[in-house]
Amino acid sequence: MSHVWRPLFVALAVVATILCMRLVLVPDDFGIHEQGYMYGWHRKGNETDWKNIKVKYRTTAYCINCHKDKYLDIKDSPHAAIMCENCHGPALGHPQDPRTLEINRSRQLCVRCHFKLPYPNSARGGIKGINPATHHPEAECVLCHYPHNPLRAAVRKEAKR
Amino acid sequence: MISRRNFCKKAMLFIGGVAVPVAGLEIFNPQRLLAEKQDPAKVRWVFLVDTRKCVGCGFCVRACKLENEIPYDANVSRTWVERYVVTRDGKVHTDSPKAARDGFTTKAIDQAGKGMLEIRDEDITKAFFVPKLCNQCENPPCVQVCPVGATYQTPDGVVLVDRTWCIGCGYCVMGCPYGVRFFHPVYKAAEKCNFCYHRISKGMKSACVEACPFGARTIGNIKDPEDPVTRIIMTERVAVLKEEYGTKPQVFYLGMSKEVK
Questions:
Q1: Does residue B21 have a cis bond before it (omega within 30 degrees)?
Q2: What is the distance between the alpha carbons of residues A91 and A65, in angstroms, rounded to a whole number?
Q3: Which of A48, A113, A131 to mutate to test the interface with B (most CBs of B within 10 A)?
Q4: CA distance A30 to B247
Q5: What number of C-beta contacts closer than 8 Å exist between A and B?
Q6: Strands B217-221 and B45-50, how do they pair?
Q7: Is A105 exposed, middle or buried (0-12, 13-18, 19+ CB in 10 A)?
Q8: pTM of the model
Q9: pLDDT 10s digits, B198-253
Q10: A39: distance to nearest CA of chain B, Å?
Q11: Residue A35 is nearest to which of B155, B197, B213, comparing CB atoms?
Q12: What residues have CB less than 8 Å from B90, skipping those under 6 apart?
């Protein structure tokens, strides 16, 4: 055997090893799929992985099933467009685990929209707002305002809870 | 006896000769060409943002963080809301404190390291909020630069990241002209908005769309002419961000202002 051929065998061995390792390491569904080389080079199974992630925000349609009274309260109020979970947290695990749901009474929640910002050409300028430094700075908004229908006076019992 | 020089020459000729027909097979695959021509996808997700409706409440950012398990207090977010305040002297002040997770509850502009900037009410000529998220580009640069096939585009146009394949090289973070990419502090993989793929594929809307009380965010299917979002995109004057990059973003903006970059 001539020494001239030796590098060739070495090269072939390297190529063979790489091909074998590739066979083991690269999953079967790894390929270019529908989108072609430029953008579609991926593991097809990952699409399903993403689809299988649990939905956490169940939306108002889910809350209505049990809390119709609260829904009716908010339906005709200026807060109608706010979904329940914006203030109560995502409903995943509710009602099986009641503690996962929160009742957020903080001022920080309300001033998201109701701190007056002087922006006339933005919708924010049109929202009824207060200055949190001067408008009862110590109090939680829900002491005076009923969040499910801010037009209605607060129910004292509910506020004290 | 073959000489070393001759061997190298012949080997190169052989490899070249074999490579040409193999490449030909790949390029002229008729099925592939047909598929690309017909574009069989029935769904192409697009996003429509109405900046005139946004009030900067930040409910979208909060919902996104909780829905997609982005560490709540870490300074990373899949979506964020920017505030633009243009003053009388022509200056544009922008901020997005904590990605606007808690909304905009102060008049002062957060200048990061340089402290807060108070602007007098009478100095403001215009001010508005602009929600931003991944543009799910038709020509996504982040996908092109990914060396391992971890970032890819699905047939319905959404760009996803395979967390198990991401090696964390950061090319996509650098490649995105919109700066929407970051590293997930827990999964240690590149992360970005995926239009809540787990929700839209179940017929739901993305979390930020559901959370927006003002209807500033909407998601739709541009392949469906009856879709209300498609109707608005087709009939009204919409703009996209950084059109000059040729990425063909699929997030459309209503009421866009020239200050927004």
A1: no
A2: 13
A3: A113
A4: 25
A5: 153
A6: antiparallel
A7: middle
A8: 0.85
A9: 999 999 999 999 999 999 999 999 999 999 999 999 999 999 999 999 999 999 99
A10: 6
A11: B155
A12: none
